[in-house]
Write a structure and sequence with these properties.
alpha/beta; Rossmann fold; 6 strands; globular; binds flavin mononucleotide
Amino acid sequence: MKLVIAATGASGTIYLQRLLEQIDCRAHEVHLVMSAHAQLVAKQELEDFKIPPRVSQHPENDLNVPFVSGSARFDAMVIVPCSMATLGRIASGSSDSALLRAADVFLKERRKLILVPRETPWNLIHARNAVTLLEAGAIVLPAIPSFYSRPDSVTAIVDTVVWRILDQIGLSSPSAYRWGSDAAKPSRKP
Ligand SMILES: Cc1cc2nc3c(=O)[nH]c(=O)nc-3n(C[C@H](O)[C@H](O)[C@H](O)COP(=O)(O)O)c2cc1C
C-alpha cells in the first residue's frame, strides 16, 4: 500500500508513534508529514519520538511530493493526531500546505481520508466541521480509547485506538483485541 501519515498539533503524538511502529514499512510505502505545531507537541509529549528508518518524511509545505496530485495513486491518508484547526481548514477547502492539499486530493479522488481528532469538549464549529467532512467522505475516528480489553498500560490504551485506525486503513493488526473472538473470552484475564 501507499500511505500518507500526517500529524498536526493536537495532543497525542503517542498515537502517531504507535501507528508508525505497527505498519510494516518494508511492505508498504509510508510518507510522513508533520505540521510545525505537531513537531512542537511531539517534543513536549515524548522524550524519544522515533521515525522508523524506511518512512519518508516531507516538510509541511513542500508541494514537490507525489501525494498532492490526484494523478499519483495512493491508498489512504491518516491525520493522527488531527487538530481542530486542521480539521476546520480541510472542511473549508483550504489547501495552503502540502498536508492540506493532500487531504483535499484524497477527498476529491474519493480515497480514504482518516482523521483522528483529539479535542474535548467540542464546540458547535468543531461538530459542524466534522459533519461537513463526513458528508465529503472522510472517516472521522476520534482518539477515544476503549477499555473492554482491560488495557494495563498507557501503550495498551493507545493501541485500542491504533487498532481501529489500522482496521480502517485495511492493515488490521493480528494482536488487536476483538470482542466475541476466542481470544476475547473473559478467561483471558484474571
Ligand atoms: C501542548 C499543546 C497541546 C494541544 N492540544 C490540542 C488538542 O488536543 N487538540 C487541538 O485541536 N489542538 C490542540 N492544540 C492547539 C493546536 O496546536 C493549534 O490549534 C495549532 O494551531 C494547530 O496547528 P496545525 O493544525 O497546523 O498543526 C495544542 C497546542 C499545544 C501547544
